[in-house]
Write a structure and sequence with these properties.
Strand content: 15-25%
InterPro entries: Alkaline_phosphatase_core_sf, Phosphodiest/P_Trfase
GO molecular function: hydrolase activity
Protein name: Phosphodiesterase
Distance between the termini: 44 Å
Largest sheet: 6 strands, mixed
CATH superfamily of the largest domain: Alkaline Phosphatase, subunit A
Number of domains: 2
CATH topology of the largest domain: Alkaline Phosphatase, subunit A
Helix content: 25-40%
Pfam families: Phosphodiest
Length: 386
């Protein structure tokens, strides 16, 4: 099987913000990506815009595609999912150090945290856990945004209004002034206002709708392509109005694959997979399997027998040794990783139709170690280029 293990420390999403902040003279930030010095930066993250997808849809994105020849792809990190990737971006650390090791993961012996919504995992679970699972304690490392603010950089965060003060925002994006948006129009306006607000500015902007349409209709579908065209115009408009001495960088948090209907395995209705399993975290393309004491070897054998070549099933320590979560694993992070870690290949999805009914019927999924999910763009344009 071909696995694309993230290249931590050389060209992953965790290296992007430190490299950009190095150009803003923030101390202790390594510029491993070789990005240029500047006085102002806008980092636009387009959720779900994989490198392979962008290359395959150049006609829908002429502006972004025009920047492709000057850059090579970077890797997202593992799992290639939004909560983990945003944590890597905001902290400048691999998952083994920031600790958000998936869409959902163990925060106790009998509890899974949905890291996007900061609820107990399960679509019928709506209890806000911010007072019980305190974001600043779950992810205690100082963010790159906080370090930039300490160095005198005006750090601005432009994102959907409902993300202000969310558990994920507090955990991994703290240190920025939040500017809430509702659509592409005010995202553009807030970005440009933020860039003009101070002499040294770092503005991080986030757009989620391409990922949402990829999940529902599939990446490359008609709705997805129309949304990509709107995003291309958004990026072009920002680039055209950048203040002097400003760099626009466009990246993503993961790619996406279309899951075949006949390649879905439902954990909730498959006794072979459920035997010996205490909790099941992650998502359809990457699963954290938490086993009952003494059952790990038997569970691994059962999963391997049923899934075969369609997935890689590793015990926690082997996944750590293979570098999936980065070169270092903090002590408090280790128990959050499943006793077994399952990385899907091909178009496999391990669904949960009872616990995750909506997610289980998605067309597009992501998270694993395939080229389609791991490779993401990092495209740059400077104001002097316009």
């Amino acid at each position: 099987m071909v696995l694309l293990v993230p290249r931590y420390g050389s060209d992953t999403l965790a290296d992007v913000v430190p490299s950009l902040l190095a150009g803003l003279d923030v101390p202790g930030m390594p510029n491993v990506l070789g990005l240029p010095d500047t006085r102002r930066v806008c980092l636009l993250l387009v959720d779900g815009l994989g490198w392979q997808l962008l290359r395959s849809h150049k006609a829908e994105a002429p502006f972004l595609s025009s920047l492709l020849p000057d850059r090579e792809p970077i890797t997202a990190g593992f799992p290639a999912t939004t909560a983990t990737s945003l944590a890597s971006l905001g902290t400048g650390l691999p998952p083994g150090e920031h600790g958000l090791v998936g869409y959902s993961f163990a925060t106790g012996d009998d509890e899974l945290l949905n890291a996007l919504r900061w609820h107990r995992h399960g679509e019928d679970q709506a209890e806000d856990l911010r007072s019980q699972v305190v974001p600043e304690q779950l992810q205690p490392r100082r963010t790159a945004f906080e370090r930039a603010a300490d160095a005198g950089v005006a750090v601005q965060l432009v994102a959907p209004r409902d993300q202000e003060g969310s558990g994920l925002t507090r955990a991994v994006l703290r240190g920025a002034r939040f500017r809430g948006v509702q659509a592409l129009g005010d995202l553009t306006s807030h970005v440009l206002d933020a860039l003009r607000s101070h002499d040294r500015v770092f503005c991080y902007a986030y757009h989620a709708d391409l990922d949402a349409l990829g999940h529902v209709y599939g990446p490359g579908s008609g709705p997805w392509c129309h949304q990509l065209a709107y995003i291309d115009r958004l990026a072009a408009r920002i680039a055209a109005e950048l203040p002097q001495d400003t760099l626009l960088a466009v990246t993503a948090d993961h790619g996406m694959v279309t899951v075949a209907e006949d390649d879905r395995v439902d954990f909730d209705n498959e006794p072979t997979l459920r035997a010996g399993v205490r909790m099941l975290g992650g998502e359809a393309r990457v699963r954290h399997v938490y086993t009952v004491p003494g059952a790990t070897d038997d569970v691994r054998h059962a999963w391997r027998e049923l899934l075969g070549h369609r997935a890689v099933v590793l015990p926690r320590e082997e996944a750590i040794k293979a570098g999936w979560f980065g070169p270092r694993i903090a002590g408090y992070v280790r128990p959050r990783i499943g006793d077994l870690v399952v990385a899907a290949q091909g178009t496999l999805a391990v669904t949960r139709t009872k616990v995750e009914p909506r997610l289980s019927h998605f067309t597009g999924h992501h998270g694993s170690l395939t080229v389609d999910e791991q490779l993401i763009p990092l495209l740059t344009v400077a104001s002097t280029d316009n």
